[in-house]
Write a structure and sequence with these properties.
393 residues; alpha+beta; 11 helices; disordered N terminus
């Protein structure tokens, strides 16, 4: 094989390498404000060397995901990619690879595949809102395995050269807290509180603008929803939620459950299961922290009418709906009955689905459960036991 046909091996001398973690989430319920620039800061995570910001320009950040997915296709097809005209494309690739070399052929096909993936992304993913970008850069957690890595110009590529889990573990709490905070901030407006995870990617940066793609990430899609008037109106409250969530490790699992299923591949059943599990975790946690105040309310009789007399029932023997009712009475008694009605209906449909198959998957009240989770997560973050219940909202 001629020298010009070979792809160069990636070496340690191409470093030192730093990693970049990049995640993009659509926030359809926020309309990006006019005449304010290309980005609006949301929060800075100095201990993670990361930042979160809103932008209308998702192409700039999704470009790395497009290229990463394009490289995956090339690796699976011996650098040829998806052929539009099988025989003609095969013949043309043969000429390019034979006379111009593998590197030229790879770069040519990479551009074509990246453009095709970007076009498909635009076709499938449309949102009237803006996009949240979470970006972090720092020193590698572990040294990369470059034994099977190659490069073409300033693009490096390989399979499983680093492990994703250590990096995702670092940034998942901050990313999920930010997404959930924005969702909660929109929930009190006329905008949709739903968020749509587009995808994330981890890539390495080396010398002379070298970008090394060592992992292929999956992508989701966006859904059409109603946008509220401006993102700016929600940012201040969202910025207050983020540190509070990160300071409370006990709710990290609940937030992760709530956020993770929000992408293209999940139907209503999976979204409902995740939302319900997250809500149960929040309710069980809050039933402990609000326990003393609930006992005080119960002893004075200053609670709404409930379908069961709880005065002679020990809290460990409460049904799940009883625990929710107790939490709701402490955190926001003015809406406790209405919220409990929503919770009970959702719980009944859940039981009908699991135990009797009496409810169809599409009839599961996922939106109601998500609404309750956002509300009671927000209330839990601001709960102060010494305040009277009537002062909370």
């Amino acid at each position: 094989m001629k020298g010009k046909e070979k792809l160069s091996r990636l070496k340690e001398d191409d470093g030192p390498f730093t990693y970049v973690y990049l995640a993009v989430t659509a926030i359809p319920g926020m309309k990006y404000p006019d005449n304010i620039g290309e980005t609006v800061p949301v929060h800075s995570f100095t201990e993670r060397n990361a930042e979160a910001f809103l932008t209308p320009n998702w192409d700039m950040y999704c470009a790395h995901m497009d290229r990463s997915n394009a490289i995956a296709i090339l690796l699976l097809t011996a650098f040829h990619g998806q052929r539009r005209f099988a025989w003609l494309s095969q013949y043309w690739d043969f000429l390019v690879f034979k006379f111009l070399g593998i590197e030229v052929g790879f770069v040519r096909n990479l551009k074509r595949e990246t453009a095709r993936i970007r076009k498909q992304r635009h076709k499938e993913q449309k949102s009237p809102g803006c996009y949240l970008v979470y970006r972090a850069e720092g020193a590698l957690v572990e040294p990369p395995d470059l034994s099977v890595a190659r490069r073409a110009g300033n693009i490096g590529f390989g399979i499983d050269n680093i492990r994703r889990d250590p990096y995702r573990k670092i940034h998942k709490p901050a990313l999920h807290a930010t997404v959930t905070a924005l969702s909660m901030a929109i929930a009190n407006s006329n905008g949709s509180p739903h968020t749509d995870f587009i995808g994330d990617v981890i890539y390495l940066k080396g010398k002379e603008d070298l970008t090394f793609y060592c992992r292929i990430m999956e992508m989701g899609s966006l859904s059409a929803t109603i946008s509220s008037k401006s993102a700016i109106d929600h940012l201040e409250s969202a910025k207050e939620y983020i540190p509070a969530m990160l300071d409370d490790n006990s709710i990290e699992t609940a937030i992760s459950l709530f956020v993770q299923p929000q992408n293209k591949g999940n139907g209503n059943l999976r979204s409902f299961i995740a939302a319900w599990s997250a809500l149960e975790l929040i309710v069980n946690r809050l039933s402990k922290t609000t326990g003393p105040k609930w006992c005080e309310l119960l002893s004075t009789g200053s609670i709404p009418v409930w379908d069961k007399d709880l005065k002679n029932v020990l809290p460990p023997n409460y049904r799940l709906r009883d625990r929710f009712f107790a939490v709701a009475c402490v955190l926001n008694q003015s809406t406790a009955v209405a919220d409990a009605d929503v919770f009970v209906r959702a719980n009944d449909k859940r039981s009908d689905f699991y135990h009797r198959m009496g409810v169809k998957e599409e009839a599961l009240p996922t939106n109601d459960v998500q609404m309750l989770f956002r509300k009671y997560l927000r209330l839990s973050l601001s709960y102060q036991p010494n305040l009277p219940t009537t002062s909370r909202n």
